[in-house]
Every structure is written in C-alpha cells, then in structure tokens.
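Tokens as discussed.
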C-alpha cells in the first residue's frame, strides 16, 4: 500500500490509506481498539475511492488511462494466453517492439493476439518506445493478420498507445501508408476480430489494429482522434486547456458507447485497473470470450459484411 502511486485527485484517499497503514503497523493481536479504528478508516477509504471513481471527469479518466501501474499487453498475455509464441519483424525493414504479436491458445482456442506495449520501467519504456508504433510495427501487424486469416484463427487486439510514433524516420518510412494498410487488413479479415482499448486509444495508431467486429473499452480507458493536450494546442493554441479538450471531445467509454463508436464497456475494479490487475485481466478475458462466442458460426463473408456495416454506420443519422 505504501508503494502505491496516487494521482493528484486521489489525495483524500491517499491520506486515509496512509492513516490505515500507520494503524496496521501498530496493530497487535491484543490491540482491539486499534483494530476497530483501522476497520473504520479502511471502510471510509474504500467508500471515498468508490465515490471518487463514480464521478471522474474526462480529464481524470485520461490520467487513470495513463497510470503507469495499469496492466499492459504482456500482463494480459501472461494471464490469458497459453503457449504464446511471438513473431518478430515485418519482413521488410525491422522489428518494432512497440507492437507485440503472435499466436497462442486463449481459453481453449487458438488465436492471434497483438497489441501495443508501453513498458513498465524506464528500460522497458525506452525499448518499447512508450507504445508508439513505427511503420514496421504496423506492417508486422498486417503480416500477423494475414497469417491468422490463412489459418482461420480469430484476432484479438489490445490497444494502449498515445498514438503512432511521429518521428521523422517513421514518416520517411511511410507511417501513414502503414497505418492505412493495417486498417485495410483488419477490414479484409474473414475471421472474427475483437479489439479492447485497455488504456489509451490514440488516433490512427489505435485504429490501425482496432477496426474490429467488436470494439470494447475498459471503463476508464480513453479513445480519441488526438490527445487532449494536442487538441487544445490545435483548437486554442494553449495546451493548458487540456481539460476543456478532454470534456468537449467525448473521449470516454461512456460517451463512445452512447454514440455507437464502441460495442461495450468492461467494468474496472474500484479505483481503476491498477488497483486489482488480476481481477481486471480476468474481466477482460471474459468479455473477449463472449465477443468471440457471439461471432461463432458466421461465414467469412458475413463476418466481413458485419464489420463493414458497423463502421459505415458511424455518424449516420437514425
């Protein structure tokens, strides 16, 4: 508990949990009064945390979605996928560790699974480029999807990126074209694909692997055409207005479900996914399993048609 990282708006909860830690350290088998006080403070902290997370603003959700302790792609794979075999390289230029993908068994069925990995420490973040994929990463995704389609395996995508890498070298190697080809490969799949936004779903970097039959989001994840900071800079020439941008852009799972952009919301534990990663991963696995089961038995043409209709219907007036 003492090693937990708190966000700015969680200070009231942090103070209560700090008091609980102090009492826990003092408590002995015979200290009944301390035990009673500890139970009261723990209950108060739990209620404060629940109430706080029931009323998060879009900007606060953005902070939660970016929390460094949220479970990442490798955590989901380690818990949900047996015999995971990653494939490296796009067979054109290089390996991109910002996007990891391969094959394994998810709850008894063979699948292709891929997603962005941000890294959990400084070394990992640098190695994985903070989850910002380069063109070779998206070309690797295309390679994986084509293999999955050939062998009739469902595709699972776990999205967690601030966006595709915007560096000059990525642009020189065709970043936009690579994103477009990856999106096209998603649409062309004759097998079911399910995407889950587990943290940040940023711009085309997310859409490139999230153009799926079913798009799900964790309760406090975000999915947006540009980060709130970038949008504030574009709209008002002031990145400090990021809270206004987050509110006006409708980037939360709740707003996007209302608009028909996503298909479902996966509840997070009280206090966010980082509070109970095992429970969160199990819940995400259940949601993915249900989504794949709903698509079972459809022909390849039906799967393609349903996916195309889903995206063509976005933005149409009823």
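Sequence:
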């Amino acid at each position: 508990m003492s090693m937990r990282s708190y966000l700015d708006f969680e200070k009231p909860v942090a103070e209560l949990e700090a008091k609980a830690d102090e009492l826990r350290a003092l408590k002995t088998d015979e200290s009944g009064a301390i035990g009673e006080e500890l139970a009261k403070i723990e209950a108060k902290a739990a209620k404060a945390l629940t109430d706080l997370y029931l009323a998060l603003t879009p900007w606060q959700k953005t902070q939660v979605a970016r929390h460094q302790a949220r479970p990442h792609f490798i955590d989901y794979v380690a818990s949900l996928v047996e015999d995971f075999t990653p494939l490296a390289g796009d067979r054109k230029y290089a390996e991109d560790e910002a996007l990891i993908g391969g094959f394994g068994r998810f709850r008894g069925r063979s699948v292709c699974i891929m997603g962005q990995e941000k890294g959990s420490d400084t070394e990992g973040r640098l190695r994985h480029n903070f989850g910002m994929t380069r063109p070779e990463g998206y070309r690797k995704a295309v390679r994986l999807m084509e293999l999955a389609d050939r062998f009739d395996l469902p595709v699972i995508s776990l999205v967690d990126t601030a966006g595709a890498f915007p560096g000059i070298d990525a642009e020189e190697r065709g970043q936009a074209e690579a994103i477009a080809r990856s999106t096209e490969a998603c649409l062309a799949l004759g097998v079911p694909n399910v995407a889950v936004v587990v943290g940040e779903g940023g711009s085309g970097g997310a859409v490139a692997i999230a153009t799926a039959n079913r798009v799900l989001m964790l309760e406090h994840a975000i999915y947006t055409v540009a980060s709130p900071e970038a949008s504030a800079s574009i709209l008002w020439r002031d990145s400090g207005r990021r809270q206004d941008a987050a509110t006006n852009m409708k980037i939360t799972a709740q707003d996007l479900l209302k608009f028909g952009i996503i298909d479902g919301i996966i509840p997070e534990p009280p206090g966010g996914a980082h509070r109970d990663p095992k429970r969160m991963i199990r819940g995400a696995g259940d949601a993915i399993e249900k989504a794949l089961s709903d698509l079972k038995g459809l022909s390849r043409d039906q799967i393609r048609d349903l996916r195309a209709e889903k995206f063509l219907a976005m933005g149409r007036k009823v």
